[in-house]
Amino acid sequence: MLPDRPVLAVTDAELGDLRRRLAATRWPAPWPVAGWAAGTDPGELRRLAGHWASGYDWRAHEAAINALPHHFADIAGTPVHYLRFDGETPDALPIVLTNGWPSSFLELAGFARRLATPSEHGGAAADSFTVIVPSLPGFAFSPQRPSLPDPVQTHELWHLLMREELGFTRYAAHGGDLGAGITSRLAEAHPDALVGIHLMAVAGPAAYDDASLTAQERAYLGSVATWSAREGAYQHQQNTRPVTLAYGLADSPAGLLAWMVEKYRAWSDCGGDLSSRFSDDFLLTQASLYWFTNTISTSFRPYYEYSENLTRRVERVDVPTAVALFPADLTQPPRSWAERTYHVTRYTKLPRGGHFAAHEEPELLARDITDFFRELR
């Protein structure tokens, strides 16, 4: 049901505390390394933190967040927050969208509206979706679950939400990053309920013979290893010692912002210019959502759970699967690699965009999702 009060009600004291912490930031001693070469650029971070402390209008963004179509449900004893955007036609196809990290439901809200009302964006009303955007447990307004391992994994929460709570007999699903894994597990566990799935990343096969690898697959695995060595420090920390990291990020808004902004720059199709894809207010609203809900620590849990083998591994997905690859995203798996695990019926390489495609290239992503599911409705 809709909440009977605003989902966000940041007090003046909380807002003042944020601004005080930003103003009192103890900046690290500078390195003789320019720009982003050794981490978040100090000049850019100081500029953003200064705007967050004094020029950024949180109240306007808080009001916009509260105006979204929020709902809450108790799913198998777990509170789940979600947005619902009804399609513009009575037979709109239900679809659940799942974000990754360091994203949130908020990053998908505008994109969800586009899918729900395509006629407002030059599309056909017949292609509309009824869009559900849940918050992952431990992200924003869905509290983390109290025990490890989780008695009901996230993909099962999504199925219960879609089938039992919302009454959708069959539905579609889309995800990238963490959301791609959840979407894959959802389709593997409930093939009768999934019309199809649309992914921006794929799970590797549970097992394979090295001798069977194609040259393209070998090159891909080499690129993944190179990326992990150069860019994967954050993942290793969140996999292995997330709580140690969380103490600093939960206490320092400048530290939290540095941790997040580096990823928005590195993983997007911005060509090194963060502002070419993301406004200051966009970045600061994402960081504010994590800060005011105090969920940066709990957002690391999916990494730890997967690393500790507490999350079900994907073995084989037989529902129709579309793979959409944006050139600046983290990896570019060849179709043959995806086909080792999925029933791939659509494989698209998009001309531009990155990890945050719903924000970076909503038109391209919406078109690919729409074209794929048009034949499956």
Q: Topology of this structure?
A:
Elements: H1 12-23, H2 42-55, H3 58-66, E1 70-75, E2 78-85, E3 93-98, H4 105-116, E4 129-134, H5 154-165, E5 171-175, H6 178-189, E6 194-199, H7 215-231, H8 233-240, H9 242-251, H10 253-266, H11 280-293, H12 296-299, H13 301-307, E7 317-325, H14 335-339, E8 342-349, H15 357-360, H16 362-374
Parallel strand pairs: 3-4, 3-5, 5-6, 6-7, 7-8
Antiparallel strand pairs: 1-2, 2-4
Largest sheet: 8 strands, mixed
Order of helices and strands: HHHEEEHEHEHEHHHHHHHEHEHH
User: Could you say which structural class the secondary elements and strand pairing correspond to?
Assistant: alpha/beta
- Gyration radius from CA atoms, angstroms: 20 Å
Shape: globular
Which superfamily, in CATH terms, is the homologous superfamily of the domain at 66-210 and 313-374?
A: Alpha/Beta hydrolase fold, catalytic domain
- The count of helical stretches stands at 16
CATH topology of the domain at 66-210 and 313-374: Rossmann fold
Provide the helix percentage.
Answer: 40-55%
Please identify, by name, the CATH architecture of the domain at 66-210 and 313-374: 3-Layer(aba) Sandwich
| Percent strand | 5-15%
Q: Gap between N and C termini, in Å?
A: 27 Å
Strand tally is: 8
Report the mean per-residue pLDDT as an integer: 97
**Can you tell me the CATH class of the domain at 66-210 and 313-374?**
Alpha Beta
Description:
This protein has a domain at 66-210 and 313-374: Rossmann fold. The model has no long low-confidence stretch (mean pLDDT 97). It is 44% helix and 14% strand. The chain has 16 helices and 8 strands. With 377 residues, the protein is of the alpha/beta class. It starts with 11 loop residues before the first helix and ends with a helix. The radius of gyration is 20 Å and the shape is globular.
